[in-house]
Amino acid sequence: MRILLLLLLFGCLLAPVRAAIEAYEFDSPAMEADYNQLVDELRCLVCQNQNLAGSDADLAQDLRRETYEMLQQGKSRQEVVDFMVARYGDFVLYRPQFKSSTYLLWLGPFLLLVVVLVIVVRRLRAAAKPVGVDAGALADAKKLLEADESDEQGAESEKKAGSEQ
Amino acid sequence: MIRSALPLAVFILMVGLLGYGLSLDPKVVPSPLIDKPAPVFSLPMLEDPARRLSTADMNGRIWVLNVWASWCVSCRAEHEVITKLAGRNLVTVVGLNYKDKSDDATRWLEQFGNPYATSVIDIDGRVGIDWGVYGVPETFVIDADGMIKYKHIGPVTHESLEQKIMPILEELLG
User: Fold this and answer.
1) Considering the domain boundaries, does residue B92 fall inside one?
2) pTM for the whole structure
């Protein structure tokens, strides 16, 4: 039972929010698909974080009607989008157009990714590279270590000898 | 030293950008119609629906289009400011009665006073859409060439009248 309720809840989350109550009749499935895509991608200006499909605001209803009528008149999807942008600006688009003022918006994430990749690669390379040490100093260090080891060995054998006694 | 200062610099930059973002009003959507020709309309007048006013009638005149409705609460708030503007007789103030019932609109004007030279009826909001209206009230300033010079979204306050609209009108009037 609980699982069923949970599933239902998730089902609600997945379903696209639709407030559209108008029953529009379309000449073709293609036109209906165009309509649905448009009301999904166009923003309602009254309740700004909703699209036209999800908003019950008066203006959203009017803009849905406008969208429907333009499609009925044989206008293309792009023409409807241009109509809206001419009146309300780029803000109505949930999918901003690719143009000079939006290059940063579209390409920014990839640019950031490249920058991060460059930094990561450089760091990894730096970590993998052996640390450059002067050869003379290395030889000295080795000598010291060896001397130390032989000292310790000597001390240990002395200890052993002492404990055996 | 530089290494440790970098995150701080990035942080300060982010705070600056976000702070700037906070200072903007997300409700105000810049209109693409500024410095573009005013969308044409020809609409019946509220006072006498048999007569029509068209944008062509306003050619050669500097005018203000105030979008209002009797159901709009903030229109009542800005009403005295619009009345003040109209009372200065500098420009023609036209009302666009947006998606309203004419009876209600007429009664509203009788009750509060009518500052408009005339109001035109946009019963289904189509002219509103052409003008990019998305919230009533909105106020447009149109110059003698029929170009939209300024759009005010929301109620005009005394401050916004004096500080924003008047300077534009004065510049247009020369």
Assistant:
1) yes
2) 0.75
